[in-house]
Amino acid sequence: MGEIETFIDGYRDAFVRGDVDALLERFAFPVQTLSVIDGAATIGASDREAWRGVIGYIVGAYDTLGVAAATSEVEVAEPLAGIRTARVHWRLRRADGEPVYDFTAVYTLASVDGVLLIVSVAHDELPRLGAALQAAEG
């Protein structure tokens, strides 16, 4: 297993554990985000405290939805020396193996002061998360 795959495995495990601090340690700040909703993109940048709120919200939503495991398919590229991307197709599951939802995220990673960190993330999770939360409510 390569460095990026090991990084993504640790990232996944931190989400499943709901460990917000461990997740924050995997990002460089400000982190740039690109979300795709209904074919349109929204772009943002967050400092550590703002991102703590975002990650906390997602961790709480996963808890509400009963997410207990996630599997992933990872494609790694190095478009520039020292810059790598990981395109990850995530499959979220409950403890009984029941699917919650799938989504795709593309992480741009760089070595910052000798530590591999996510500097940007593009994803299509928000519509799927919202739909799963609505279904759980109703």
Topology readout:
Blueprint: H1 3-17, H2 20-24, E1 27-37, E2 40-46, H3 48-65, E3 67-80, E4 83-94, E5 99-112, E6 115-123, H4 125-137
Parallel strand pairs: 1-6
Antiparallel strand pairs: 1-2, 3-4, 4-5, 5-6
Overview of this protein structure:
It contains 4 helices and 6 strands; from the N terminus they run ααββαββββα. The protein has helices at residues 3-17, 20-24, 48-65, 125-137, and strands spanning 27-37, 40-46, 67-80, 83-94, 99-112, 115-123. The chain has a 6-stranded mixed sheet.
In short:
With 138 residues, the protein is α+β, with helices and mostly antiparallel strands. The chain contains 4 helices and 6 strands. It has a single domain, classed as Nuclear Transport Factor 2, Chain: A, CATH 3.10.450.
Q: Give me the secondary-structure category.
A: alpha+beta
Describe the biggest sheet?
Answer: 6 strands, mixed
Q: Poorly predicted ranges (pLDDT <50, ≥5 residues)?
A: none
Taking Cα atoms only, what radius of gyration do you get, to the nearest Å? 15 Å
CATH class: Alpha Beta
Features:
single chain, alpha+beta, six-stranded mixed β-sheet, Nuclear Transport Factor 2, Chain: A, 4 helices
